[in-house]
Write the structure tokens for this entry.
Amino acid sequence: MAKKLLLSLLALTPAGTAAQCLSSSSGIGLANYDQCCSGQASANGREISNGVEYDYHCASWMEPDDVRIPNVMSARDCARRCHNSASCAASAWHRSNWCYLSPFASDLEMKTHPEADGWLALRETQPKRDPATVPPAGCDAFITQCEAEKKTAEDERDHYKDLLDRASLNSPVVQLQTPLWAAMPI
């Protein structure tokens, strides 16, 4: 009875409305996971937490992951850790209170399996850009100059390539009747 009452109370926000997935930081992994997934392995949703909109998918996780953090007490805390990390593209939280942060990678993907009970994949709907591709502030003039220099270099390369192609078409191919090594004295 007390356990049912506790779970019922955990399912309510302070305003008395039904809690959503990322609004809980109860510290009880199973209760937080149940708020997100309600026993439905195929459940997913979209929610705003601290001004950031997230998609979440039950029975799912992200691969690859390069940071594993124990004692992360809720899906919200896991999502926040990813949001605050410049190198995190997405995260996965497990109801055993583990958070897995995934880096920006070309092979980043979400994996789903109906038997993956307890897993929750989290991704911002307006994802951050990979810090390696974001120029620092005040670099616009430098970037414009680099792009102009790149275009000049590519134009020169193409010009010399055309010259080389035309030169090779106009030059006769010399075929030796006798290999050079055969004409050399021993």
DSSP finds five helices and eight strands in the chain. Helices lie at 2-10, 29-37, 75-84, 140-170, 180-183. Residues 1-19 have pLDDT under 50 and may be disordered.
